[in-house]
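Hi Q.,

Before the meeting this afternoon, I wanted you to have the nicotinamide-adenine-dinucleotide prediction in hand. No need to reply - just skim if you have a minute. The sequence and ligand are here:
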Amino acid sequence: MRVTVVGTGYVGLVTGTCLADMGNDVYCQDVAEEKIDKLEKGEMPIFEPGLAELVTRNHQDGRLRFTTDLAAALANAEVCFIAVGTPPDEDGSADRRHVFGVAKAIALRMQQPLVVVVKSTVPVGTCDQVRAVMMEELERRQAGHAVEVVSNPEFLKEGKAIEDFLRPDRIVVGVASATAADCMRRLYEPFVQNGHPLLVMDVRSSEMTKYAANVMLATRISLMNELATVCERVGADIMEVRRGIGTDRRIGMSFLYAGAGYGGSCFPKDVKALSRMAAEADCPADILDAVDKVNRHQKMLLANRVLKHFGGDARGRRVGLWGLAFKPMTDDIRESPALVIIKRLVEAGATISAYDPEAMDNARAYFAGVKQVELAKSPYDAAKDADALLLVTEWGVFRSLDFERLKALMKAPVIFDGRNQYERREMKRLGFSYHGIGRPAS
Ligand SMILES: NC(=O)c1ccc[n+]([C@@H]2O[C@H](COP(=O)([O-])OP(=O)(O)OC[C@H]3O[C@@H](n4cnc5c(N)ncnc54)[C@H](O)[C@@H]3O)[C@@H](O)[C@H]2O)c1
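Predicted structure with the ligand bound:
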C-alpha cells in the first residue's frame, strides 16, 4: 500500500520503517529539516536497536523515503498516519495542537480519498475532532475527497520498538466504517501472522485503550514503590516480596519492580492527561492522582537519601551517577528520574559526574552550560573521587563491573542502587555501604 507518516519521531520512524519492510511504499514526513537531512544521509536521529539496519535497507531499496514536503508525501497516499507529539499542556491535558495542525495541513493538500490513522496518543474524542477539522478544510477547498479517520494507538516500548512493531502482542484499531476496518486489516495482516490479534473496535474505546494500558502499568510501578517504602519501615525486602507475589499467575512478574520512579515521554504525561480527561468528564480520578504523586515522590527519593547521607549539606561533595536515559536501551532522557535527581543534588551544592551508554548527546544538550554537571567517559570515570555513587538506569553494562577497581577510585565506597541491581551481601563483602530501594540497608 502507499503510506505517508507525518511526524518522524520514535513512533513515526519505527512505524514507517516497519511498514516499508513489509513491502509498502512509505513516505516519512517531518517539519524538522535537520532530522530529515540526517535520515537522508543514513544517520539515525535516535538510538533504537535494529532501527538503522532496517532504515538503510528499505531506504536503499526505494520503499522508504524522507521529506519535509507534505504535499509531495501525500501525492499518491492511500493511508496517512499522524504520529506527531502530544506533550502535556500546562494543566496536564494533552496538547493536541500538532495533531489538529497536521489534520488541517493534510486536508489542505490531499488530492484523493484518504484513510487518516491517528497513532499519536490522544484524548478520547480527538479522532472525531480530526475528522471535523479536515471536513471543514475540504469544504472550504470545495474538494469532495472521502476521509476516514481511524484510531490506532501505538504500544511499542522504546528499546524494543522494532520487535514490538513487527511482532506485537496485539494491534488495536478503532474504526467508524467497514471500509476503514478493511484498510487496516490489509495493512496489518503481515504483522499478526504470529497469531496475536488485530482488535477492531469503535474509535473512542480504541483511544481510551491506550491510556488504560499506560496507567495500568504506571499504577503497578507506583504501587511497588509504595510497598517498597513500607518494606523498609517494617524490615522486609521488596525483592523477596516481589518473588512472593509475582509467582501468582493473577499478578505476574513483569512491571513489578520498585525503583527510582517511572519516566519517559509516555507514562508521566498519559497519567496526567487521563486524570484531566476524567476531571473534564466530571469523574473522580483518585487512583491516577495518587499514582502520579507517588511517582513524583519516588523520583526525589534517591536524591533525598544522598543528601541525608551527607548530613543535609552537599556543598563540595562529588556524586557519580550511572544512567541518564529513562530506561535502558534508549537514548531518550525525557522525564528521566536522573534529571530530577541531578537537579536536586546540584541545587544542594553537589557536583555530578554522570555516564550513560547511549544518552550522552542528549544529556550534553540538556545540561549545556551547567558547570556542576560533568559528563564522564566511562562508568569508572563517573565514579572517580565520588563521595557516593548512584545507579539510576539499569543498563546491562553496570551489572558486572570491577567493583574492587571502583572502590579504589571512589573517595568513599557508598552505593545508592536505584534499581536493586546488586546483591546486598556481596556489596557488603566488597566493603561498600549499600542502599537499595525497599530493602534493609547493609
Ligand atoms: N515514544 C514512545 O515510546 C511512544 C509509544 C507509544 C505512543 N507514543 C505517542 O506517539 C506520539 C509521538 O511520540 P514520539 O515519542 O514519537 O514523539 P517525538 O517527539 O519523538 O516525535 C514527534 C515528531 O513529530 C514532528 N512534528 C511535530 N509537528 C509536526 C508537524 N506539524 N508536521 C510534521 N511533523 C511534526 C516532530 O518534529 C517530531 O519529529 C505521542 O503522542 C506519544 O505519546 C509514543
